[in-house]
Automatic annotation (TrEMBL):
A GO CC term assigned to this protein in UniProt: endoplasmic reticulum membrane
GO molecular function annotations of the record: Glc3Man9GlcNAc2 oligosaccharide glucosidase activity
Keyword Transmembrane helix: yes
Protein name stated in the entry: mannosyl-oligosaccharide glucosidase
Assigned keywords, A-Z: Endoplasmic reticulum, Glycoprotein, Glycosidase, Hydrolase, Membrane, Signal-anchor, Transmembrane, Transmembrane helix
EC number(s) given by UniProt: 3.2.1.106
Amino acid sequence: MNIFDPSLNEINSKEIKAMLTTTPSRIFHSHGHFWDEGFHNMVLVLWNEHMSVELLSNWLDLMNEDGWIPRELIIDQYSKLNVPKHYHNHITNIANPPTFLFPLLHIAKKLAFKDESSSNFLKVMFSKVARWFDWFINSQAGYHQFSYRWRGRDHLMNKMQKNKMTMSSGIDDYPRSKIVDRYERHLDLRCWIAFAANITGQIANLVGEERSKYDEIFKHLTEESLLDDLHWDNKYMRFGDFGAETGSIISIFSSHKVVNRIGYISIFPFLMKIIHPDSYKLKFIIDDMTNERKLWTDYGLRSLSKSDEYYKQNNDINAEDEPQWRGSIRLNINYLALRALKYYETHSVRYQNVIQDLYQRLRENILNNVIDVYYEQGNFYERYNDETGAGEGHYPHSSASLFILILSEEYFDE
């Protein structure tokens, strides 16, 4: 495995002879992906806890001394043939959404009071998670306090892209601000860090370690007024990334603003349960989710509004790459939406009836379509067409793991 350290401008090699990991698709994505690993293990940990512990331990063992974990693992020749060469180097300032914390908290709750051996193992695992968290929050820090920016958009490999991709975010070609600079603020990353602080604090408490640092970070990142200052647009009444959309960069005050784009990113504070259950902002998010011109379809929530300039648009100037997160339906984000609706259904007084109805309709749409496509096309797919419901992209795909969780209504509450 080649590891590039941008701070030293050098490439080093690390030998990895074998690793146990799940894969999104054995045919097309035959290597491990860190953020996919978390979703897959949400099913695996319920079926075979011991195997899930082994898989997650393998990923944590890849950590370097600073706390960085590679976002994917390309070590065998078959995987290298299926992955463009510019992704073969693993860059030490590139992060990935910490979905591994969903199953890890489940494991921690089981092992914490089991026996001394399990408790000691959990303490070792927590020490690695704590090191990773420190790296995560510091390496992805933004220009303003309590703002965060995915690294990697300014990499040379992105030169031919109409809107620079953010591979580190997991939602690769979802359009961000048009100009890439250090003043960007990425809303989903901020929500993931809040989530990570909450989970890491809980695990710290389970192993008898100090949790106040994580609680304090979580408190700041879920403070609604601070979130509004950095990511809320009062004109369009929605959340978004912050960045420069047009023109030359003169100052951060004249050219930068909250990006008005309706899609998975704009509802992320809802997805990660950061919005107060009775906040008026929840109404605007629900309105976007249920509008058929925006996110609502008969098959699940689409990733990008039909009115967006990038909707179903190819991103690479010279290649025929299919749009991935520009309108199609993704089960992982729809799972997070159902998980959030289940939470707000219980905690919201003002919107409880609306949310109950929305949960039932969305869940039925997703399940019915995935089952119909399986019988018609014979597989589980990477993504689903927002206009026809048809399966698209790679197959067979382990998005089936999310289907199982939705079917069984297993939502891994913190």
